[in-house]
Amino acid sequence: MADTTCRWGFLSTAGIARKNWKAIRLSGNGTVSAVASRSQNAADRFIDECMQEVPMSSGRPAAVEGYEALLQRDDVDAVYIPLPTSMRLEWVLKAAAAGKHVLCEKPIAGTLSDAQQMVDACRSHGVQFMDGVMFSHSRRLDAMKPDLAKFCGNLRRITTQFTFNGGEEFNRENIRTDSRLEPHGCLGDLGWYTIRMILWAMDFQLPESVTARTLRQLQGSASPAGVPGEFSAELFFAGGVTASFYNSFVTEHSQLVTLSGDAGYISLDDFVLPSYSSERVWTGHQNYLEIDNCRWNMQARPTRRSVNEYPGGEPNAQEVNMVRTFGDIVGSGQLDPFWPEIAIKNQTVLNACRESADNDGARVTL
Ligand SMILES: NC(=O)C1=CN([C@@H]2O[C@H](COP(=O)(O)OP(=O)(O)OC[C@H]3O[C@@H](n4cnc5c(N)ncnc54)[C@H](OP(=O)(O)O)[C@@H]3O)[C@@H](O)[C@H]2O)C=CC1
Ligand SMILES: O=C1CO[C@H](CO)[C@@H](O)[C@@H]1O
């Protein structure tokens, strides 16, 4: 660690790494020192294009051929790993062994045992592990938490949905439809977020059991097998709270959450990739039915709530908060066990849902 600046290395030139490049530039406590790619040219091109739009104040990062070479560098404190899911176990273990802190994209692994190995390796090498869920770092969540009791009363039901319609080329070519790279398809890519939202609302209590179905499979042109392209699940918690989620690569953009209780409900419709405005909004609903003889009127009583926060690309945006928080942990030398813990819980629920779906919707106990 140089001074208190967290020096980042990127393992690959993934599309999402461009967003986090800018986030690191805006974080105030980090810089990108090196970017590795399978190809030297791709690393150079990525750096040139990012520098042109968002120059790193510390100068041009090193373009490195091969991921291993980046891990050997002394000017890297933390690595960002947006490699396809199936490659992460290998590279998280290598990064931890090289003493690098790890920000790992989601879903963190194919199996729970791989995820556990990753987290254990980071702990035993004294480095931080965190998954790349940006919305977990939005100030909206902390502001919304007290509203659960206020608008919902006792929570009974959570529904979440995260979808987009990828289109034909996506279905054929994207890593997300290749079982060798992203074995859980939309469950891994989108379900990770819907599960995170449910766990957040439940204070990270795990469900007792789940049932799930793959509603549609997609198979990329080079993929040896299909992956979930449309998926739904039902989660059963102790005390009777239930939750459901739906993910799809064939249903146009939606990011819906309802948190319902015995007093009303909260809704939001941009929980992962916030809509472009300077406010993060949610709505409390306490509707009532007015009955007077032959007149039956449902009265809507919405309360709009918000915090000031940009959706992305500004210093107070959630992805900037994420890398800033990570940089603060690295700078403090105090690892935060919360982040690996919730990543393991996410993976536990994800794999239970997949197991149920692969067994015709059989109930899986956790
Ligand atoms: N947290 C978030 O908001 C987001 C998270 N993600 C997650 O990040 C991951 C990457 O997504 P995305 O950026 O769309 O992916 P891309 O397809 O853009 O990038 C994947 C990168 O992995 C490297 N790679 C290494 N081996 C292979 C291989 N065999 N096939 C393909 N790529 C390979 C390549 O980098 P190179 O050639 O340089 O070595 C490639 O650029 C996904 O798992 C996704 O779930 C994605 C978007 C948003
Ligand atoms: O994590 C992600 C954020 O949302 C995208 C969809 O709009 C996903 O595909 C991506 O992997």
Give the overall silhouette.
globular
| Alpha-beta content class | alpha/beta
Number of domains: 2
Look at the structure and give the mean pLDDT: 97
**CATH architecture label of the largest domain:** 2-Layer Sandwich
| H-E order | EHEHEHEHEHEHEHHEEEEEEEEEHHE
Rg for CA atoms: 21 Å
CATH class of the largest domain: Alpha Beta
Largest sheet: 9 strands, mixed
Percentage of residues in strands: 25-35%
Ligands bound here?
NADPH dihydro-nicotinamide-adenine-dinucleotide phosphate, 1,5-anhydro-D-fructose
Residue share in helix:
25-40%
Strand order of the largest sheet: 16-13-12-11-7-10-9-8-17
Q: How many distinct beta strands?
A: 17
Measured between the Cα atoms of the first and last residue, the distance is 40 Å
Describe the structure concisely for a colleague.
The protein is of the alpha/beta class. 35% of the residues lie in helices and 30% in strands.
Q: What report would you give on this structure?
A:
- The protein is an alpha/beta fold and 366 residues long.
- The protein has two domains: 6-135 and 318-335, Rossmann fold (3-Layer(aba) Sandwich); 138-316 and 346-365, 2-Layer Sandwich (Dihydrodipicolinate Reductase, domain 2).
- 35% of the residues lie in helices and 30% in strands.
- It is built from ten helices and 17 strands.
- The chain has helices at residues 15-27, 40-53, 67-71, 88-97, 112-124, 139-152, 167-173, 185-201, 318-332, 338-358, and strands at 6-11, 30-37, 62-65, 78-81, 101-104, 129-131, 155-165, 209-218, 227-236, 242-248, 250-261, 265-268, 279-285, 288-292, 295-299, 302-308, 364-365.
- The strands form three sheets. The protein has a nine-stranded mixed β-sheet.
- Helix 4 (88-97) links the parallel strand 4 and strand 5.
- Helix 1 crosses helix 9 and helix 4 (88-97) packs parallel to helix 5.
- It is globular, with a radius of gyration of 21 Å.
- The two termini are 40 Å apart.
- The mean pLDDT is 97.
- NADPH dihydro-nicotinamide-adenine-dinucleotide phosphate is lined by residues 12-16, 37-38, 42, 82-85, 87, 105-106, 132, 134, 175, 181, 189.
- Keywords: Oxidoreductase.
